[in-house]
Write a sequence for this structure.
């Protein structure tokens, strides 16, 4: 099947590794049918071809290809294997919000990063051919052998290797699926977070990123649902929240540190944004 389905996991929480196995199917044997497993099941074929379906979709997963089966579907063998087929399988749990899109470019909008949050969305092609199969298979081999170790010694290595495996899968997806607008919007966000305390304008941003300011604005609106200056304004106020709690600095110093040159204007913007004055916000977290 040629449709590219994208699995998106919104973090936190983090995906949680359960176990890894290695299965060999002889010619004529097939993958078992299951319904509502309750776990994500990552299949990584290292030899042969696995014929498998999920509800109305069907795949031929060949050597060097992966398939991510989702928890709440019906999984079944489309037909028996023609040749000896060897594949790793990885079960992992995820209790957060996840979604499935048919268009890899149809990412959900990215939020403005809040002071007490570090949101991220892991995006994985459901059916993929990772670029670095050798590294992925080394991770899987190690995970398989860690299952034989003492639990207290193996646990952290298992979780770390699993995260490296997800990162490897996401890197391959990101290289192929990210739109030019998303790449520019994320580059713009990174620049704004690095220079939020300075005088940033649409013109200086365009000069720094080497793109027309109108294109930068359109990209930010598409991905973050706000203009660069709106993002900058919110990010400055979020950083002000952090400084109000983590320092004893006077309001005027905080205002200047986050890019406001006039303290009363900063206080007015902060109250409009947070619902309370900067001093009231600080007192909420003071003894």
């Amino acid at each position: 099947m040629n449709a590219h389905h994208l699995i998106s996991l919104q973090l936190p929480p983090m995906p949680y590794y359960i176990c890894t196995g290695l299965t060999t199917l002889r010619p004529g044997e097939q993958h078992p049918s299951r319904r509502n497993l309750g776990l994500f099941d990552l299949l990584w074929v290292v030899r042969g071809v696995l014929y498998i379906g999920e509800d109305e979709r069907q795949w031929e997963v060949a050597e060097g290809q992966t398939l991510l089966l989702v928890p709440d579907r019906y999984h079944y063998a489309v037909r028996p294997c023609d040749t000896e087929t060897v594949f790793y399988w990885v079960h992992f749990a995820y209790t957060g919000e996840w979604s499935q899109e048919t268009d890899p470019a149809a990412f959900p909008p990215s939020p403005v990063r809040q002071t007490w949050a570090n949101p991220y969305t892991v995006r994985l092609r459901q059916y993929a051919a990772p670029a670095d199969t050798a590294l992925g298979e080394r991770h899987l081999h190690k995970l398989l052998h860690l299952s034989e170790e003492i639990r207290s010694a193996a646990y952290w290595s298992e979780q770390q290797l699993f995260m490296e495996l997800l990162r490897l899968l996401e890197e391959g997806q990101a290289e192929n699926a990210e739109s030019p607008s998303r790449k520019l919007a994320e580059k713009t966000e990174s620049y704004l977070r690095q220079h939020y305390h300075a005088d940033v304008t649409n013109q200086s941003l365009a000069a720094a990123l080497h793109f027309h300011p109108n294109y930068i604005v359109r990209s930010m609106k598409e991905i973050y649902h706000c203009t660069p200056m709106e993002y900058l304004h919110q990010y400055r106020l979020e950083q002000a929240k952090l400084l109000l709690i983590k320092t004893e600095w006077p309001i005027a110093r905080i205002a200047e540190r986050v890019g406001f040159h006039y303290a009363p204007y900063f206080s007015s913007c902060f109250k409009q944004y947070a619902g309370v004055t900067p001093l009231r916000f600080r007192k909420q977290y003071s003894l």
Observations:
- The longest strand covers residues 16-25.
